[in-house]
Amino acid sequence: MTIGRALLDRAAHLRDEPGILDALRSSDDVEVVVVREGRARVEDGALVTTAPSAVGDAQWALLGRRASGTPLLLAVVDTSTESMDAAPAETWLGLRETGGMLNELDTELLVEAVTLAGWLSDARFCPTCGAAMQVRQSGWSRWCEDCGREHFPRTDPAVIVAVQSEDGERLLLGANAQWKGRMYSTFAGFVEAGESLETTVHREIEEEAGVRLTEVRYISSQAWPYPRSLMLGFRATAGTDRSARPDGEEIVDVRWFTRDEIRSALAGDGPVGLPGPASIARALIVDWFESK
Hints:
The protein is built from 6 helices and 15 strands. The chain has helices at about 20-25, 95-100, 105-120, 195-210, 260-265, 280-290, and strands at about 30-35, 40-45, 45, 60-65, 70-75, 90-95, 135, 140-145, 150, 155-165, 170-175, 185-190, 215-225, 230-240, 250-260. A hairpin with a 6-residue loop joins strand 8 and strand 9. The two termini are about 20 Å apart.
């Protein structure tokens, strides 16, 4: 699922306000999204929030405010947090597990919370000198007292591409080695140092599928918090259909699919499995399928 305009006010102007986190944690009119191991609680198709007083030891951050003005905090807890153990294990879900069950606001909030939680958990030490860093800006930066450098949550750009045939009537999908041939999807890869997005698209498709492209068009993007990616979606046209072949390492098979085959796959009737509804990969496939 891709998101256009922001539905959440991130309230960035409040992040540097002295004592803001402590003040909000002591307030009753605050909602907390608790994240544990990249998952948050979801019940009855909605993201579950709790009161600050219900959370024990945690790393805290300011996520923003609802349209009503209610502040939203992030609490990153570990698996041994006793106050969270009463929640059933099956209610702790990540973005993949939630699929399309959450509304757009809950999806945006979950992506922000899981992404920021991952950074707060992983980026404890300065990558320049190795010293422990202090949290600043209400969880949105870390400062190293030893070398004086400030670090921010990092986002890695990656392209993801739906490749259509010359006549636009077939879609090229690949089976990743990790999926053991059970699912086919669009092609993706990280932007390398010094590359433009368009250069990455051409390189990745030629490397993974052996296809040279004649046209590349941007479609939409999706923040993906595993671990910290920004997926930039494109549709491209192959110069020739006959050159398609898998690289044999990351991609073990490539196939051209007709619209009828994609229609059946989207309905869950085969001939292959497709990505789940939470991913931009499926959105790109649906966008192509519905384009004619």
